[in-house]
Amino acid sequence: MEELLNKNFHLILKTFLLMRLCSVCISAWNETRLRRLGVLEYGRQNSMMLLLLHVAYYMVCFMEGDIAIVPADVTSCIGLTAYTFSILMLYYVIFQIGHLWTVKLLVAPRPYHVINKSFLFRYVKHPNYYLNIIPELCGLALIFHSWYTLCIGLPVYLIPLIIRIRQEEQVMRTEFDNY
To answer: For the chain, what is the largest distance between any 2 Cα atoms, rounded to a whole number of angstroms?
Structure first.
């Protein structure tokens, strides 16, 4: 029974990791299309820092935990639940934002760029960060029992994330009257 649980756990984890990689491809696809429209990019250096820290966070989690022997214990299952939630939120945000969703802070020319006023965006400011990124990083660390990564890496990651949220708020207020 335990072996079956571990196999299913690993299959689910691999599926969601693959879905996370697919989201990077969606971002690149959208960015390519948006650049043809003449988007403005803001916070380029901070976006690069977030990208590097995101990749580093994953790598350190994998190294600190043993990627080959992830136990399907309570802690890992809580982590997988948080990670699953984060991936579902990521794809919901991608669905809601559509062609405008990228990992970068890009503003397309009007009327191509419109403010999303759906339920989620009205009640949760920056759902991609609060409902995807933070649960994703916490969940990943719990899955692999990567306590040092969680306690050190997450606060380090939060610095450019907070900068990004402030940059995004400033850009949205500057570029859009109805924000």
So the answer is: 58
